[in-house]
């Protein structure tokens, strides 16, 4: 069963810890990459919504070599509880 994309983002943060949007997208591309809504803007929206609901937090930001803003997020304790409650364990 494929998780909804927003929950998959939260699950990714739970599994690997602090990540930027591009890292999240690279990790989830094999599953969601063929979907029309697999865009940077939508994944930014997913992370911002998770932050607004206290499931993830913005941990740092920096400029990359192209002078573009890179945002890093990590899961919160509430986010971990949500993953434990709603995401089936891998066997």
Automatic annotation (TrEMBL):
InterPro entries, from UniProt?
A: WH_DNA-bd_sf
- Which taxonomic lineage does the organism of this UniProt entry have? Bacteria, Bacillati, Bacillota, Bacilli, Lactobacillales
According to UniProt, the name of this protein is Uncharacterized protein
| Highest rank taxon of the organism | Bacteria
